[in-house]
Write a structure and sequence with these properties.
The complex is a heterodimer of chains A (410) and B (413). With 410 residues, chain A is an alpha/beta fold. Chain A is built from 13 helices and 14 strands. A ten-stranded mixed sheet of chain A has the order 5-4-6-7-1-8-14-13-9-10, sandwiched between helices. In chain A, strands 2-3 form a two-stranded antiparallel ribbon. Chain A has a two-stranded antiparallel ribbon with strand order 11-12. In chain A, strand 9, helix 11 and strand 10 form a beta-alpha-beta unit. In chain A, helix 3 crosses helix 6, helix 7 crosses helix 13 and helix 10 packs across helix 11. In chain B, strand 12 and strand 13 form a beta hairpin. An eleven-stranded mixed sheet of chain B has the order 5-4-6-7-1-8-13-12-9-10-11, sandwiched between helices. In chain B, strands 2-3 form a two-stranded antiparallel sheet. Chain B is of the alpha/beta class and 413 residues long. Chain B has two domains: 241 residues, Thiolase/Chalcone synthase (Peroxisomal Thiolase, Chain A, domain 1, 3-Layer(aba) Sandwich), CATH 3.40.47.10; 156 residues, Thiolase/Chalcone synthase (Peroxisomal Thiolase, Chain A, domain 1, 3-Layer(aba) Sandwich). The chains are: A alpha/beta (410), B alpha/beta (413). At the A-B interface, helix 4, helix 6, strand 5, helix 7 and helix 8 of A face helix 5, helix 6, strand 5, helix 7 and helix 8 of B.
Amino acid sequence: MRGEPGAGDADVVVTGLGTVNALASSVDAFAAALRAGACAIGPVTGFDASGYRSRIAAEVKELPPSDRLPPALRRRASRSDRLALAAAAEALRDSGLDVAAAPARVGVVLGATTAGMMAAETSLLARITGTATRYRRSRLVGTPMATSADLIAHLFGLGGPRLVLSTACSSSGTALGIACDWIRLGRVDAVLAGGTESMCRTIFAGFNALKALSLEPCRPFDRRRAGLSLGEGAAILVVESAAHAARRNARAHATILGYGLSADAHHLTAPHPEGAGAALAMTRALARAGVAPADVDYINAHGTGTPLNDVVEAAAIERVFGEAAARLAVSSTKAAVGHTLGAAGAIEGLATVLALRDGFLPPTVNLEEPDPACRLDFVPRASRPAALRCALSNSYGFGGNNTTVVFGRA
Amino acid sequence: MPEAIVATGVGVVSPLGSQPAFWRRFCAGETGIAPVAGADAATPAPRLEARARDWDARDHVRPAVLRRMDHCSQMIVSACRMALADAALVLEGRAAEEAGIVIGTAFGNLRESEDFLRGLFAKGPALANPLTFPNLVLNAPAGYAAIDLGLRGPNLTVVRGEASGEAALAQAYDTIATGQADVLLAGGGDELAPILREIYRDAGLLSPDDGGEAWSSPFDQRRNGFVPGEGAAILVLETARHAAARGARVLAEFAGHVAESLPASPHDWPTASAVGDAAATRHGLAALGFPPPRAAGTLLAVSCAASTARLDATEAARLAAILGPEAPRALVTSVKGAVGEWGSSGALAAVAAVLAVATGEVPRLGALDAPDPGGALRFADRRAPAPHGGFAAALVSATPRGGGALTLLFRRA
């Protein structure tokens, strides 16, 4: 029989944390806001949202200052870039990692879905309205998806592999998993892994047209839930080989024990009705992590607040955990920080790491009347102290792809 | 040491057609570049493009899945079907449950993205098209492929600018090497889109040459910009054990990949002078067993050179540094002279590398007349003789914007 899973088993640890999101501009403030049960969803200010069914989102009100960027890059950096850079700086500082000692041994992998889309939209709009007669290169070079990773590599001197995952809302959960793969394959000693996402009209209009946006702040797992609330932000984790971290006496916030991927192969937007893909990702993640369902104390759910997702995800959890589901805590931080799409897996992975490290269950804020069809402990409204051994973070995306990451206590 | 990974099938949708036409025409030095469809004197120059041709998604994709699919997804899913047929691989039941897909794309479904935004700006959010929106995510092609083929394994989409195809193959290698799948479809696709042509043109990146269809010539002294293209290329990758167990024909071994960071602005290409000695790539390739012994035969390097002044010079300098003393026994080529530049065309470069190793035939730089002095490099121009004993190994080299270089290694199985 296996003992309690934890640092003894892990070859991958998390040694640095950084975030900028609608709740907070630092990890400490984010942890405090999660514990306090705060909700950052409010009226949209980033663009004119009149004419939309829903006009609320979880926006970052104050963009991190760009003065640490060289002047040549300042104008070109997109909103997503700036969120990612601030999170990366905080995470690297926190980790104490000396990148310059072996630059080629440090990589970067991010999840993203829109990158500099807002700037691209503005350029197109200027052409349509005739205020511009051509596309300006300087306005567009910062818009492609791969740029945030290149900027981080450039500014922090990372010489290892770089990658951007774009698997919709599971992007950055998968990025955390791929960081672990790179370490286990011996490609790198450490990875800046996470995701970044900024609000844009395309995404807001698309979810609005699908009638997937809630008119009031989303309330996952609630009987009256009526859709999701979009958000923006970035989170970066320094994911490091346990041996490397031990050699430099780095503090580990948590371990990453494994991850699992699956596809629904069912529909581009609707989840599989029985949650087969979601269950498969959890099952694969647990198997790869060598963790039994009974060892898991907490699941940070995908929990978007759409009628379909939440009931399907709850059913998948019940199926995978069986009797162990009864003593499991499950919550969604999307009601607090919004659905940040390509950054969601990273921000929620960060919340999961904080829960393990600080011993608390982040609440599902706005949850007042639990849906009788979802029979789990969703940690409604208020956080609770809890000593957690193992926790999962679920991320599911358009395209029907599913990611589950398994975290352990350091 | 992870288990060997092999390529057992390829699927191609390209401006040179699909298989086997693509390979035959590429080796004959033909081009897929043609005047922009429907162009007339009023069309702003440049008016050349490389449009995917001679394929019909209805021949490949199930009608129910095809109904809502965008053009980029159609190319990619068709190429997936072609690759599986080429590999004689039937994915059903348990095999489909475990099989996955890794797609690289730089921009994905650009046409519908532009249409969606134009509609939004013209008619307001209340009339935005809910049917189009799900198609706009970059992973729509991989999602559609999973639905069409029933793939329930890892489903990944990666974005690395002009190295998106190479990045997808590198990721597929890792996904198999970490035991997450025995079989993956891996590659990429990107589509021609009016907005992209305009942005490239306004940025001065396109060849202003309007003269003839033949013009687009990587490594040529006359090169002056690329021609936009489109297509999709997919490889079936399997563990050697899985391929052997089903008696599959093995085209080549995928021996691994190496990443290197080159000094470059995050928004620009590195300069040739910044390439240095490509030490990380040389050491990484050495660890993968490259170069093979001289007696094993000739080497091939499929470069990302796109007929642009700076990128091609950078690539020539990089390949000269990577090959070092092996340069005299290597032939250098690029697919982009024939099929244009599309962000994930590196997947087609990988197909060319695999087919060259499998057949010994030479994929040619058909338009190359006056090579830029590339030091010791030997270019696979129209006159280059096919190597005796075929190709022992083939590199695929990508030097995308931002400086994150990637090199793939294929070799005789």
